[in-house]
Amino acid sequence: MIRFEHVTKRYADGTTAVDDLSFHVAEGELVTLVGPSGCGKTTTMKMVNRLIEPTSGRILLDGEDITAVDPVRLRRRIGYVIQQVGLFPHRTVLDNTATVCHLLGWPRKKARARAAELLDLVGLDPAVHGGRYPEQLSGGQRQRVGVARALAADPPVLLMDEPFGAVDPVVRERLQNEFLRLQSQVRKTVLFVTHDIEEAVRLGDRIAVYGEGRIAQFDAPTVVLGAPATPYVADFVGADRALKRLSVTPIEPGDLEAPPVVRLEDRAAPAAARLAAEGARWAVVLDDAGRLHGWVSAESLTAGADGTVGDRSRRMDAWLPVGASLKQAFSSMLQHDAGWIAVLDSEHGDRFLGVLTPARLHEALRRSIDADARGASRAEVELETVSGV
Ligand SMILES: Nc1ncnc2c1ncn2[C@@H]1O[C@H](COP(=O)(O)OP(=O)(O)OP(=O)(O)O)[C@@H](O)[C@H]1O
């Protein structure tokens, strides 16, 4: 969708901001450009909508050389979101959102209806916020309006330059989550500039790590974190990159442990015998409908022979869908002070799949690092384990 071919930008004072850059962003892909200040990220982005012209090389949008397209027409196909949102202070939020639709000559009613739809999509109630002026919004809400405005005319491409840079970390994380949800619906081709590696790995399908006008590594976040291409990249992503990987590594069914499973209505004595035979200290308890109820310890099952599992089990409401990140799993275990977290298949009626334990989480992380280094799938990786650990 966006293709850079040997693009160089040298400013009039001789600064080479971008040096012989070649890369490709596929349709519907979100690529984050990350790197320290002054390494050429913004210059790269502004060349796509021709706010800056390259010194040499070509940029193709959907196969078309952008120098052949009138800049105004070009920009209608490209949504642009920047840190200083740039809303018109004397126009309402609804009118701000409809800006591009007005420019495109849409009838007023259609433009406003579209703007209201977009505000809703970014989590702002048009009835509440639409009539306000930008200064009557919080920083996070203004950023949402910026995103809504950029999406209003439904451009295939979005350029986002540190869009969440000016808000505090909590709001920022919320905006990132909302944006991921939005992107899963609208599937735009996105170039997203940030200097924050956490943000880059969280949002990007792939990330381009910049150093001095060149791309030092361009790959999936897990690969960049697991196998940095150069010492520069390793240094940039940080010594705690294994920890960062937790947030981009999904739980897979193969990571899970399968403890014994008993039902609420099962008799306690046979359930106790089963646990003893399997050498298990506890079992997962499902309800009549096969949904997760909680757990029961072997000890409580053997105390007195009568009754059902239900009399002795304890509730455990916390669970995660398969595909959630290892970081969410770890965080959930800490939050519930539990040595395991149940993993369900939320696409198939919350079917119980197994549990993730700290040891299994560690294995999953190691396996994913190995898999990325070898270009294999995680399930194919055999781990060498230290016995007894
Ligand atoms: N108009 C200009 N004239 C001369 N040099 C410029 C101009 N604009 C940018 N530069 C230089 O080009 C280099 C790349 O700038 P650019 O803004 O692309 O970096 P960046 O990675 O986006 O940085 P930041 O994260 O700080 O925004 C920097 O050295 C900058 O000083």
Description of the structure:
Belongs to the ABC transporter superfamily. The chain has 389 residues and is of the alpha/beta class. The protein folds into two domains: 239 residues, P-loop containing nucleotide triphosphate hydrolases (Rossmann fold), CATH 3.40.50; 112 residues, CBS-domain, CATH 3.10.580.10. It contains 17 helices and 17 strands. Strands 6-7-8-3-9-10 form a six-stranded mixed beta sheet, sandwiched between helices. Strands 2-1-4-5 form a four-stranded antiparallel beta sheet, with helices on one face. Strand 12 and strand 13 form a beta hairpin. Helix 16 packs antiparallel against helix 17. The two termini are 48 Å apart. Adenosine-5'-triphosphate binds next to helix 1.
SSE diagram, text form:
Elements: E1 2-10, E2 16-25, E3 30-34, H1 41-48, E4 56-61, E5 64-65, H2 71-76, E6 78-82, H3 93-97, H4 99-103, H5 108-121, H6 126-129, H7 139-151, E7 157-161, H8 169-186, E8 189-194, H9 197-203, E9 206-211, E10 214-219, H10 221-226, H11 231-237, H12 241-246, E11 261-263, H13 268-278, E12 282-286, E13 292-297, H14 298-302, H15 309-312, E14 314-315, E15 319-321, H16 326-335, E16 341-345, E17 351-356, H17 358-374
Parallel strand pairs: 3-8, 3-9, 6-7, 7-8, 11-12, 15-16
Antiparallel strand pairs: 1-2, 1-4, 4-5, 9-10, 12-13, 13-14, 16-17
Helix pairs in contact: 5-7, 16-17
The structure holds adenosine-5'-triphosphate.
